[in-house]
Design goal:
157 residues, mainly alpha
C-alpha cells in the first residue's frame, strides 16, 4: 500500500502549504480590518470568561460562514453530480449561507459595546464577515460556472 503523500509532487505540496498559510495570514488581517472598521479593535479593560449570548450568536454565525466556504469549495471542486446535488445547488447554498453569515456578523459587531475579551463575540463576528464574504464569492463563481456548463450542454443537444 502506497502512501498518499508520495503521490503528490513536492513542489505542488509546498505550493499548497504556502497558499494555505497565505490565506490564513490574509484572513487574519482582514478580520483586524473588519474590527477596526467597526470601532471595536481595542481589547476590553475587563475580561469576560465563558460563553455569553453574543459569543454564542457569533460562534453560530462563524459556523454558518464555514459551511458556506465548504459548500462553495465543494461546488468548485466537484463539477459532476454527487449525492444527487448539483454544483449549482451547492453554489446557491454557499451564497445564501454566506449572505446570512455576513449580515449576522455585522449585526453582532453593530450591537457590540466592547472589543475582544468583552464577551460580545466581536472576533467571531469579524471572522464570520470575512469567511461569509469568501463563501459568497466562491459560491457565486460556482453558480456562474454551473450555469455556463448547463448552457453549453443544452446547446450541444
Amino acid at each position: 500500500m502506497q502512501r498518499v503523500m508520495s503521490q503528490i509532487p513536492l513542489k505542488r505540496l509546498l505550493a499548497l502549504i504556502l497558499a494555505f498559510l497565505t490565506a490564513v495570514v490574509l484572513s487574519g488581517g482582514m478580520v483586524y480590518v473588519v474590527l477596526t472598521a467597526a470601532n471595536v479593535a481595542e481589547p476590553a479593560a475587563t475580561t469576560v470568561y465563558g460563553l455569553t449570548e453574543k459569543r454564542l450568536w457569533a460562534t453560530i454565525t462563524a459556523g454558518l460562514a464555514v459551511v458556506s466556504v465548504v459548500n462553495g469549495g465543494l461546488a468548485l471542486a466537484r463539477p459532476v453530480v454527487r449525492f444527487r446535488i448539483t454544483t449549482g445547488r451547492l453554489g446557491a447554498i454557499a451564497v445564501v449561507a454566506g449572505i446570512i453569515a455576513v449580515v449576522n456578523g455585522w449585526l453582532v459587531l453593530a450591537t457590540a459595546t466592547g472589543g475582544p475579551n468583552s464577551g460580545n463575540g466581536v472576533v467571531g463576528a469579524a471572522g464570520a464577515v470575512v469567511l461569509g464574504g469568501s463563501g459568497v464569492v466562491i459560491g457565486g463563481v460556482a453558480l456562474v460556472r454551473s450555469r455556463r456548463a448547463e448552457t453549453l450542454l443544452s446547446d450541444k443537444r
